[in-house]
Amino acid sequence: MPWLFQLVLAAHVGAGLVALITFWGSVATRKGGPAHRRWGRVFAAAIYVASAQALIMGTLSVIWPLAMHPQLTDEPLYRGLFGWMMIYLAVLAVSMTRYGLAMIANKTAHARNRHWSMVALQLAVFATGANCLVHGIILGQPLMIGISLLGFGTSTTYLHYMLKPQVGRTDHIPEHLKAMVACGIAAYTAFLSVGLVDLFPAHAFNPAIWAVPTILGLWIIFHHLRIWAPKKPAPLPAE
């Protein structure tokens, strides 16, 4: 059975590498321009493919954790880390990508953001995040606990925006930006975890290392939000 996991993992890494590269294409190109849209479409497609494969790997790791990872010995730990947490991260990545794309697609039709599938996806993040949190507490894994809180935060803010009866004409822009950059953060975080399992097993789940993409991603978000922030009107001249 490990061959099945390795086969899916190889395809997952391939899709992940495409996402890691195209993420920077989206960041570096003019927002809203043709190049930005092309990079963004490829990035989103790669995230969807990688997430689907992560769901498969997570499910296999929940059912047969030691069969999928014969080099490991702690069955409950790796069922939690490679199983439940991977399933949760896959759902979270799909949620971020779907939300980010919807912000642009529905920029003139906010009511479509309240489609049942959009709401259901956020509820799925809550459910899988809660499951990850419980297993993290049981296993004493601060990484699982901390990363589950990220999903609670994103879904709460997404639902808050989606359920607003009315939004401003340009409110969709920061929502799109935050969701897609957050998805890039998740992609790089997952990349570091997989790479470190093979290169530095002792540090594979070190929260300090996983924090690097988050810090960089937050800087990108704040930088672009400052650029896109509505300009305050100039004060009237004193009489």
Feature tags:
about 80% helix; about 0% strand; mainly alpha; disordered C terminus; about 240 residues; globular
Number of strands: 0
The quaternary organization reads as: single chain
On the 0 to 100 scale, the average pLDDT is: 80
Which sheet architecture does the biggest sheet show?
Answer: none
Radius of gyration: 19 Å
Tell me, briefly, the overall form. globular
Give a description of the structure.
- Keywords: Membrane, Transmembrane, Transmembrane helix.
- This is DUF2306 domain-containing protein.
- This protein is an all-alpha fold.
- The chain has one domain (about 1-225).
- About 80% of the residues lie in helices and about 0% in strands.
- Helix 5 packs antiparallel against helix 6.
- The longest helix is centred in the middle third of the chain and has 31 residues, at about 75-105.
- The chain starts with a helix and ends in an 11-residue tail after the last helix.
Quick summary of this structure?
This is DUF2306 domain-containing protein. This protein is mainly alpha-helical and 239 residues long.
Secondary structure topology:
Elements: H1 2-28, H2 34-63, H3 65-68, H4 75-105, H5 116-139, H6 142-162, H7 172-199, H8 207-228
Helix pairs in contact: 1-2, 1-7, 2-4, 4-5, 4-6, 4-7, 5-6, 7-8
